[in-house]
Amino acid sequence: MTFLAVGINYNTAPVSVRERLSFSTDILETSLKELIRIKEISEAAILSTCNRTELYCSSSYDNQQTIIDWVSDTKQINTEDFVPYLYFHTDRSVCRHLFRVACGLDSMVLGEPQILGQMKTAYQAAYDAGALGKNLGTLFQHTFTAAKKVRTDTAIGSSPISVAFAAVQLAKQIFDKLNEQTAILIGAGETIELAARHLSQQGIGRIIIANRSYEKAHALASQFNGYAISLSELPAHLTEADIVISSTASQLPILGKGSVESALKKRKHKPIFMVDLAVPRDIEAEVDQLRDVYLYTVDDLKNTIDQNMNSRRLAAEQAEEIIDTQVDYFLTWLRAQNAQSTIRDYRTQAEQTRDEALQKALALLQNGIAAEDVINRLAHSLTNKLIHTPSIQIRAAAENERHDLINAAREIFKLTKSS
Predict the structure, then answer these.
(1) Are residues 101 and 177 in the same domain?
(2) From the candidates 50, 57, 95, 103, which is the catalytic residue?
(3) DSSP-assigned states of every residue in 17-32
(4) What is the pLDDT of residues 123-132, one digit of tens each?
(5) Is 50 a catalytic residue?
(6) Which of 105, 135, 153 is the last residue of a domain?
(7) How many Å apart are CA 52 and CA 8, to the nearest integer?
């Protein structure tokens, strides 16, 4: 049995290639069932995200070309159009790669936690499709255990390394309870969507999305039970804001000192926490002069992000050590499985010998032979039967100078040298 992994990711392939090899959820089950119909492949799982597509297989031998041909047929893409972007792993390397991916060590954003959830989804899809067996299924379970240990024992995911996350973490430091605060988010792009998502996860009391396009603001706000307004309505709602996060593509400031000062008066100088993530800036620099405003720019957060990135790199070094240990644990388990059939056969043979000896002993008792004699005969007979075949094999090994087998026998039976 061989583990195989074939994949592409954001490092090896452009999005134009990645999108052609992606597996959407609606075709995943069918694809997995087709994959395990290949004679040499007994188990399979497919991890497909925006940043990577990876196929994990348990196979009777190292048959990367078979998987490549299957992908080519399934996706209707010539091999020369995607093979140069592929990477391959086998056996131990598969285990280590899988563990690193689950821990976020192979992600575009070091230590990002979303990939573990995506991997669990891939596992569940393979399980539901009947594509997982004992070996690959257990490998995934060990993967989840390793990822949990890395998250628990290192700081790999504890420090924010996106400006949106850093902004929300800073807001948490300033306000004791975000569930009592109102946040106005200006813009409707990816950064504002991330900020909204992080605020929602932290239990923010209320979200207002302000954007030049009301339709875009409404579409985003509806995802987080928020309220949408146009930019022209922003001054009227600014008095409600405890938190303001802005990230637009505007070439001119959207919030000036005057409008913020007016809002503060209506708020009776209740402080406002502001984060300007835009370049050029959305909030006039003079706003920082106002006594009850805490204004941060993207540069202020960058220092925090850089420090946290260094912290994650140190944590990643610890994570690599944990992963090496966890890989050894799994491979030890896997090697032990190779002996299970031998152990089972040996036990079956011993039980059969026992049952035969026991039947003879019971027959002697029924014939009136004294119980003590029967027990002695049973012990003698059982001992002779159990040692007969090993004794013949050890003697044959000596005759053929197979000292390795003799040494193995001494180790297996834990024999001490007789005096």
Answers:
(1) no
(2) 50
(3) HHGGG---HHHHHHHH
(4) 999 999 999 9
(5) yes
(6) 153
(7) 6
